[in-house]
Design brief:
Helix content: 25-40%
Order of helices and strands: HEEEHEEEEEEEEHEHEEEHHEEEHEHE
Strand content: 25-35%
Structural class: alpha+beta
């Protein structure tokens, strides 16, 4: 019950140490809060700028798809289209005759077709194209020089029809860089040569007939220290026939007039082995152009579905489908036996695939070649990709085709399941002749087919 009076408190050194520790905690908390705010601000800027550029690309691609031809120099613009818009020409789009209303698309009397067309159709802006030009942004307060992408052409009414006589210049997007952070490689095929054009921070690829275009926009947002830089790309294909340029007569859209729409269109051969894995490219370029009257993506899906339908059921066949762009996505965690229900599921899964992103099949193929339930791999792609990297088998960095060959020779050949045959199908671009798909197949007991 005795209590001793305690008259002692904190000493001065203890107060100093505790104050210093408290200060460290406060500084750490402030630093963490500041970092979070900076990250959130950077994410917000990235989303806003990315959304702005995506919207601009979508708008441009929609007009490319609706045009007759893509023009890249003022030499192809009629002399009557003067004065020309200010700024550097990115591209111009030659548009078809414009309907005045939706009823113009219906002709009840074929004998009066030309008269109906004359009354209900109008040539846009005296046959002048729609211009896209880069103009310097003098209001930009960040580092370096920034540009604005402007469109000069007829406006669009509420129903989606062009107002032929209402020509205005509007802003498509801003914050375009004066140079580029990333570049694109223009397509090259046996029948077509694509031309590259750089306009400040915009890279443009067009085919020699002016029917296809791929565009990349490099943009940046102002920040206190380092600017936020993004780059996005998209492409389109003019669907309207240009008789003056192409002399196609009644040919369908997508035919360049120099070859049939598709040569050697057998995408997937019947599997030679019972355990087959299909790799289908779903990168963004699979939406460009026409094959068999469809986009390459839809045509490839149809051919793959037909191959799946042809597989015998309940006879020991095993199936897997891997969709790849910048990463690989498997249909099932492991190959499944071909049954009526598994075929139905596979057809439904393939039919829902959509195109977007880059091209990188290697992680998926590396996993498949190590699976004992895989005897044959069929790869379909139309894109450029890196061809070398670190091999999963031995850690060395060299050609992926050589890596898979070494694994086939040193591991698969010694096992009961045997080596994996790799067949490839190169769409439009010839990657069979001295390309990554030809090397991949030739070194792994397969064949490469160019689908032109």
């Amino acid at each position: 019950m005795n209590k001793r009076s305690n008259k002692y408190g904190f000493t001065l050194p203890e107060l100093i140490v505790s104050g210093f520790v408290s200060l460290l905690i406060l500084i750490s908390g402030y630093t963490l809060l500041k970092m979070n705010l900076q990250v959130n601000n950077s994410d917000e800027l990235n989303l806003k700028l990315g959304g702005k550029i995506n919207n601009a690309l979508d708008f441009i691609v929609d007009e490319i798809n609706s045009s007759k031809r893509v023009i890249t120099t003022y030499n192809d613009v009629p002399n009557s289209c003067r004065p020309l818009p200010q700024g550097d020409l990115v591209l111009a789009l030659k548009m078809p005759d414009q309907a005045k209303s939706s009823s113009s698309y219906q002709t009840s009397n074929m004998g009066n077709e030309s008269k109906t067309k004359k009354q209900n159709w109008v040539t846009l802006a005296k046959d002048c194209p729609i211009f896209y030009n880069l103009v310097r942004d003098y209001t930009f307060s960040g580092k370096g020089i920034s540009y604005i992408l402007k469109r000069t052409g007829p406006t669009v009414d509420e129903q989606g029809f062009y107002r032929a006589t209402d020509i205005k210049t509007t802003v498509v997007t801003d914050r375009i860089r004066s140079d580029f952070e990333d570049d694109i490689r223009c397509l090259t095929t046996n029948n077509q040569k694509w031309t590259r054009k750089q306009i400040k921070g915009i890279i443009l690829c067009t085919d020699e007939k002016g029917k296809g275009a791929e565009i990349m926009i490099n943009a940046e947002a102002s920040r206190v220290r380092n600017p936020l830089i993004i780059f996005k790309t998209s492409g389109g294909y003019a669907r309207i026939q240009d008789d003056d340029l192409m002399n196609l007569g009644n040919a369908g859209a997508g035919n360049l007039g120099i070859n049939p729409p598709c040569t050697n269109c057998d995408f997937f051969q019947k599997p030679l082995k019972k355990k087959v894995t299909f790799f289908i490219d779903i990168s963004g370029s699979m939406n460009w152009g026409k094959i068999k009257g469809l986009t390459p993506m839809e045509a490839a899906k149809n051919e793959l579905i037909n191959s799946i339908r042809a597989l015998p059921v309940n006879q020991g066949f095993k199936l897997q489908v891997v969709a790849f762009n910048h990463w690989s996505r498997k249909m099932w965690s492991s190959p499944m036996e071909v049954t009526t229900s598994s075929k139905m599921y596979a057809i439904s899964w393939v039919s829902r695939l959509t195109a977007g992103g880059g091209t990188n099949p290697w992680s998926g193929i590396s996993e498949a070649i190590q699976n004992s339930e895989v005897q044959q791999i069929a790869v379909l792609s139309d894109g450029w990709t890196k061809t070398s990297g670190r091999c999963f088998n031995n850690g060395k960095s060299y050609s992926y085709a050589e890596c898979f060959k070494d694994y086939n020779d040193s591991v698969r050949a010694t096992n009961e399941e045997g080596t994996v045959q790799i067949d490839s199908f190169s769409m439009r671009n010839d990657f069979c002749s001295n390309g990554w798909m030809g090397e991949l197949s030739s070194k792994n007991s397969g064949s490469c087919t160019h689908i032109n």
